[in-house]
Amino acid sequence: MMAKFDHPNVMKLLGVSISESRTLLIIMPFMHNGNLLSYLRNNRADLTVENENMTETIEEMAAYLLSICLQIARGMEYLASNQFVHRDLAARNCMIDLNHVIKVADFGLSEEIYARNYFRQADMQESGEGPVKLPVKWMALESLNDGVFSEKSDVWSFGVTCWEVFSLGRNPYPGVDPFSLMRYLDGGERLDKPQNTACSQEIYCIMSECWDSEPWKRPTFSELVTVISASLQDMAGYLDLTCPSVRADL
């Protein structure tokens, strides 16, 4: 199915190959700027505006970071329209090409380097090949409690991904153990507003709507694209988003 994907904000599958050891290899375009999580962390100093009086600079940074979220939402809107559920949307699974276009990628192909963000639950593995890695800090309540995945569970993950963007690559739920997260969320707790001058209350509200305990109350990706686009257009000096490529002058 991946071979049929054709959207500027979704990673394209170029081909597959089988190695001599009979390992399946997936061939995708080279992403010059790596994954979004590393990009945010490596450029954290340049993306941080510490002086709250620099209103114009803060607006420009908010627009840039929100434009990243918009590109991810557009990619996810396309996947949802094709009845594809990602299940592992996160900043680490979004890639950035040479022109700074964001590509939703890594459809279940997460790297071991991020294993600390997962917990292992052997009793969920039906194939008997070993424990399953679950990205619990990005998962919706219904996914954690009942193993249910849908567009609306991807929307929850999108909210966490937006939180990563505006926290400039910090780990979600700091101090909360993965095994305690289900109880934490069931108790009504959610991620706090990122400590970033570029994250307004309006932007945080967009994230929060993605974390409603009732899946049907969460927005669709089409609705998120509309809301985020409108928010960007309301910003003074917002970036031109007529095409999906939005580049920051870092």
From TrEMBL:
Keywords: ATP-binding, Kinase, Nucleotide-binding, Transferase, Tyrosine-protein kinase. Residues 1-232 form the Protein kinase domain. One of its GO terms (molecular function) is transmembrane receptor protein tyrosine kinase activity. Gene3D superfamilies: Transferase(Phosphotransferase) domain 1 (1.10.510.10). InterPro entries: Kinase-like_dom_sf (IPR011009), Prot_kinase_dom (IPR000719), RTK (IPR050122), Ser-Thr/Tyr_kinase_cat_dom (IPR001245), Tyr_kinase_AS (IPR008266), Tyr_kinase_cat_dom (IPR020635). The keyword NADP does not apply. One of its GO terms (biological process) is phagocytosis. GO terms for cellular component: plasma membrane; receptor complex. This is Tyrosine-protein kinase transforming protein RYK. It comes from the Eukaryota. PROSITE patterns: PROTEIN_KINASE_DOM (PS50011), PROTEIN_KINASE_TYR (PS00109).
